[in-house]
């Protein structure tokens, strides 16, 4: 990582030496409309299905974390163990990551900066952010590979006058949240900035009968600072700093045998402590031929510690204590066409990533008759370096027929150094591997009329090979790369006045070497394995109806059949062909309605549902979550300077699990019913 620090410091030094001329980024209006955009005219919208959510729509669905985007678009699912992303699985159309060691299937970008592995994704969605979910292989559009899709988050830029925004929230379980933002020009300097600070906390949902208290308390605090300036010669620059600190109690994990999912009997309270810090430098300049962008970023994520009672009982039988960190350096150079009115629209770039992940895990298991308890310590370091070239082009063949195509080439190197100590001895592993991967995509749009158009797309995608750290056997540590080919076709429709929009898509995906993570029988190993072939097919529909400016209804539904076509259990030889793939719900659906009065009062209601989901390859009934729906509602009063919102979440107190752990017969219950008030003021 020394060359990474040197490169980053050099770039920062160069920026500090540049003069600060009087230029200033253009103002960007803070959009409050809850209308959801389901199609657009940009290159990236043409090249794949994109579902965009304005700042108002983010507030409409009361999204406060990435984990709460589950079912937001058809066939997007987040299996959350409620540890601020650690151990989460995010899938789109059946492709995602594993709990710990496989690459992300759904990449995340925040203000053009890519995140690392899924467990490092930010746990907070700050108010004012807009969000776009791109479905399908996005390797030709972004530096960070997104074989299943990309979640793209954008924060608002400063406006031309100084603004101060204050917000507070009070709710059930003694929830308290505070946020402040100041943004605008720095007087007389030609520089603008934006500073956001936040703090939120609540009491626990889980009652620990052994300790006689609620133990899964939550507390987070952080800040984000952006500095915008023009160093001269038509260059625009942005420096962004982010810090986030998590101080949580126990993991929200209860026994599947408990009659009440919110009661646990653990003798160990448990805790999760996470720190995340980031610095990024953004440069862009518009030329006659197009726009050049450079995004340099360094991110450090640290978990220290995460402690869990694995047996969830009053007895000191089995525990886990994890310390883990990830350092990520990325450099992306992007070249894009400008808005010149040309029939040719394009994007190309180069991307470099250096990712180092280190861990130190101590696990305690019962091991009679040889040992009263069996304690093992695993220390590991994995490193992944990759460099990629990507590009996409769209061409208006005629006014009614558009073709687009793209490609990506990526070289990836992975290595592992791992040591394990236990009563039976040491188990060191040191290995490395490399590979070169490629993906392509192409599609079309045929505009049949002002109201109706056909769309089609085919794409290949890949997830590189890598290593699992929780095994003693070198031949089990490495896992193979995953590859897929997808086809989709659909149509979009809108009325002349655009009061009604709809899009329907049918897709089919074939996946080879599908990456899964599971425990090894009669051992403490936990590894990534691959299924020879998986199929994923389904249909997706999205609609928006806004009969007048004050009233809007929108919704979506996704049906997804993700099945093992060829998969033999590598340990017991069981034929799993025809079984549903874990972490892939059969359906997702959601809808919302909002009515706003001219005097500032508004009413809105939303619902989201997730269909049957299995959490193991054998589709065991105990590890199945049935279909469930969650209803939320808000009533508020909004004026230009302030707003008051009363809300209710999970009305009716639906009980369901967001994650099931078959290894320890435990699960994470979803948020219970809660009520509260949100206050905000703007100056």
Q: State the secondary-structure class.
A: mainly beta
Gap from first CA to last CA: 44 Å
Poorly predicted residue ranges: 1-35
Largest sheet composition? 22 strands, antiparallel, barrel
Instruction: Report the count of strand segments.
Output: 42
Describe this structure in words.
With 683 residues, this protein is mainly beta. Helix content is 4%, strand content 59%. It has a 22-stranded antiparallel beta barrel. It is built from 4 helices and 42 strands. The relative contact order is 0.13.
List the helices and strands and how they pair.
Layout: H1 2-17, E1 36-37, H2 43-46, E2 49-53, H3 55-60, E3 76-79, E4 89-92, E5 95-96, E6 106-110, E7 113-114, E8 130-135, E9 149-154, E10 163-171, E11 175-186, E12 191-202, E13 207-208, E14 213-214, E15 218-232, E16 235-248, E17 254-255, E18 263-264, E19 271-286, E20 291-309, E21 319-336, E22 344-367, E23 371-398, E24 401-422, E25 425-426, E26 429-447, E27 452-463, E28 466-467, H4 474-477, E29 478-479, E30 482-494, E31 500-519, E32 526-548, E33 551-566, E34 587-596, E35 601-610, E36 613-614, E37 624-625, E38 628-638, E39 642-649, E40 657-661, E41 666-669, E42 674-682
Parallel strand pairs: 6-9, 13-18
Antiparallel strand pairs: 1-2, 2-8, 3-4, 4-5, 6-7, 8-9, 10-11, 10-42, 11-12, 12-15, 13-14, 15-16, 16-19, 17-41, 19-20, 20-21, 21-22, 22-23, 23-24, 24-25, 24-26, 26-27, 27-30, 28-29, 30-31, 31-32, 32-33, 33-34, 34-35, 35-38, 36-37, 38-39, 39-42, 40-41
